[in-house]
Design brief:
alpha/beta, eleven-stranded mixed beta sheet, about 35% helix, binds S-adenosyl-L-homocysteine, Methyltransferase_A
Length: about 350
């Protein structure tokens, strides 16, 4: 029996676009500390505020009862904690919640909370829209509007965290929502600094994954950054001709340059690479594709994550039949590839990126 999926319009108050207040989540602790110092406050106040926001899940300064009332009022005049609003929540019986977030300028992005055993994973967006143009993906159909700020990415994380029970903790983060994280790398890295900081969300880099279409110079920057996040590369095809059809940015890059950059990342980080492969019926699910994919990955310390396609209305791509999915899997397994077929968690609620936004616009 399939239980109904519940979509609720949940217009929450957002700050007005002409509100001049700063987005607190855009501020790092030392800048906040400087601001507080100017107001004659001791430096430890910044730590207290962070503790309230990131750990105690406070969404207003009023709740911060260990701060003097005058300071709380002053903070409220200068900052907002949440700058966006939540325009819809879709919850599915498998424990997946998807939020549609309306940004201060009217742009919309999506983020998802997945509950799986003791895992509490979140998937967040890094851009409004996407410029990569993957032909099967809903996010990039209208191109990219802009990068999200650090605060806007962190706000998605905090809004999802606030959906947990008090005793539950976020355990994993994937940068796999709308947008190309490596095209907004400065803000993504600043966000993840807060996500992994013990004074922020306290999530180990080992539990944080950055998913990319494969932009070699940015992968090299990630290698130099020196924090061992997991890297997932969206491959989707084993040779350039097909990949360029599916992922147009591939034309100027090519699979070899991507794999070389990913190998360098592995050498520096020691983290096993993940390759993602969206399985599109009749397009990239042939025996030949499986064989070529196996040859590409055989000598790498890598995991292959095969994702049966989530239908996007208006696009011609299909999910392969269960028979062709298992055939594809069998070839890879026989060739010794470490392959995982991702559960279709959340597919009922359009959990593939960009779909909720698109369906609401339709
Ligand atoms: N731009 C990044 C991250 C966002 S997309 C990247 O390309 O990796 C995250 C993953 O979801 C990518 O592997 C993407 O190809 C996949 N995806 C996009 N639309 C999908 C759909 N309709 N069904 C299944 N997977 C999809």
């Amino acid at each position: 029996m399939t239980l109904p999926v519940v979509t609720l319009p949940t217009e929450t108050p957002s700050i007005h676009s002409d509100d001049q207040r700063q987005h607190l989540l855009d501020w790092d602790q030392s800048s906040l500390s400087d601001w507080l110092k100017e107001k004659g406050q001791p430096a430890f106040r910044a730590k207290q505020i962070w503790n309230w926001v990131y750990q105690k899940r406070a969404t207003s300064f009023e709740e911060m009862t260990n701060l003097p009332k005058t300071l709380r009022d002053e903070l409220d005049r200068a900052f907002v904690i949440f700058k966006a609003s939540q325009s819809a929540i879709t919850s599915s019986p498998d424990g997946t919640d998807k939020l549609l977030i309306r940004l201060f300028d009217g742009g919309e992005v999506e983020c998802v909370l997945l509950r799986d055993g003791t895992r509490r994973s979140i998937c967040v967006s890094s851009q409004v829209g996407c410029a990569m143009g993957c032909v099967f993906c809903a996010s990039g159909l209208d191109g990219v509007d802009r990068n999200l700020s650090r605060g806007e990415i962190l706000e998605q994380m905090l809004r999802l965290q606030s959906r947990l029970q008090a005793e539950e903790r976020l355990s994993h983060i994937v940068m796999m929502g709308m947008g190309e994280p490596l095209a907004n790398l400065d803000h993504v890295l600043a966000t993840l600094d807060v996500a992994r900081s013990p004074e922020g969300l306290g999530i180990s880099p080992r539990r944080i994954t950055i998913s990319t279409v494969g932009l070699p110079p940015a992968i090299d920057r990630l290698s130099k950054h020196g924090v061992a996040y997991n890297l997932a590369v969206s491959l989707h095809a084993p040779h350039d001709e097909l990949r360029t059809q599916l992922v147009p940015v591939n034309k100027k890059i090519g699979i070899k340059a991507i794999l070389d950059a990913a190998d360098r990342y592995f050498d520096v980080s020691g983290r096993r690479l993940t390759f993602e492969y969206v399985l599109l019926g009749g397009v990239n699910d042939s025996d030949d594709c499986a064989e070529s994919l196996a040859s590409l990955l055989r000598h790498r310390t890598a995991m292959l994550n095969v994702i049966p396609y989530n239908l996007v209305s208006g696009l011609p791509y299909k999910t392969p039949s269960p028979k062709s999915i298992s055939r594809f899997k069998e070839i890879l397994v026989t060739r010794g590839i470490n392959v995982m077929f991702r559960q279709r968690k959340g597919s009922e609620i359009d959990a593939a990126c960009g779909q909720l936004r698109r369906n609401r616009q339709a």
